[in-house]
Amino acid sequence: MKGSNSSSTDSASAPAPGTPRRRSDATRTAILDAARERFAADGYEKATIRAIAKDAGIDPSMVMRYYGNKEGLFAATVSVDLKLPDLSALPREDTGHALVTHFLTMWERNEVLTALLRVGVTNEAGAERMQSIFRDQILPVAHLACPDPEQAPTRAGLAATQLLGLALTRYVLRLPPAVALSREEIAAWLSPTIQRYLTAPHP
Questions:
Q1: b/e map of 137-167 (b: 16 or more CB within 10 Å)?
Q2: Rounded to the nearest 5°, which phi and psi values hold at 90?
Q3: Each residue of 118-143: pLDDT tens digit?
Q4: Taking 90 as the threshold, does the pLDDT of residue 157 lie above it?
Q5: pLDDT, tens digit, 9 for 90 and up, residues 29-78
Q6: What CATH topology corresponds to 2-77?
Q7: What percent of the chain has pLDDT over 90?
Q8: CA 65, 66, 72, 77: dihedral to nearest 10 degrees?
Q9: What does the pLDDT read at residue 78?
Q10: CA atoms within 13 A on the CB side of 102
């Protein structure tokens, strides 16, 4: 009997299997939900860990425990769809112009994308998110456009150096010469380079 009572007491006091994991998942979900709303309402610069933690109903230290800092949290919350044009419906020689004009529109209308670029140059989580966007969205476009699919990663990487370089200098660093260019001038300068990277014969 004594052994039976002891076993019953131990079973009643022991936590159910998986409880800590479920609590952890629920906490992460609450943090991410609060962060998305706060970043959307206040923007990246004004949103604070303290405000996000308050919205999630937890201590700020819990946010830091799971995501390290605001940059890591932001990278975890954002989901970016570049909405790239269907290049298969365009003549191959128009690929460069189509991509440059599309990216200009994306950078100018999507503040989240610009904020992610800013985070990506200083934060590992942000860099990983940018790499996933490159892998999942830009690389498939290069496979469609280039004449030698085995070279698609190299060609896509070269194109990214120009497109991301433009975004960094024009929308993040705001270098006056880059800011002063009109969309038409940027397209005229940059489109032939992107076109060459994607479709010219391998040197």
A1: ebbebbebbbeeeeebeebbebbbebbbebb
A2: -115, 150
A3: 898 888 888 999 999 999 999 999 99
A4: yes
A5: 999 999 989 988 888 888 999 999 999 999 999 999 999 999 899 988 98
A6: Arc Repressor Mutant, subunit A (1.10.10)
A7: 60
A8: -140
A9: 87
A10: 16
User: Would you call 31 exposed, middle or buried from its count of C-beta atoms within 10 A (0-12, 13-18, 19+)?
Assistant: buried
Q: Is the pLDDT of residue 12 over 50?
A: no
Domain coordinates in residue numbering, the chain: 2-77, 87-199
**Which residue reads 């892998």 in tokens?**
135
- The 3-class secondary structure across the chain, one letter per residue, is CHHHHHHHHHHHHCCCCCHHHHHHHHHHHHHHHHHHHHHHHHHHHHCCHHHHHHHHCCCHHHHHHHHCCHHHHHHHHCCCCCCCCCHHHCCHHHHHHHHHHHHHHHHHHCHHHHHHHHHHCCCHHHHHHHHHHHHHHHHHHHHHHCCCHHHHHHHHHHHHHHHHHHHHHHHHCCCHHHHHCCHHHHHHHHHHHHHHHHHCCCC
Rounded to the nearest 5 degrees, what angle is found at the Cα of 108, between the Cα atoms of 103 and 113? 75
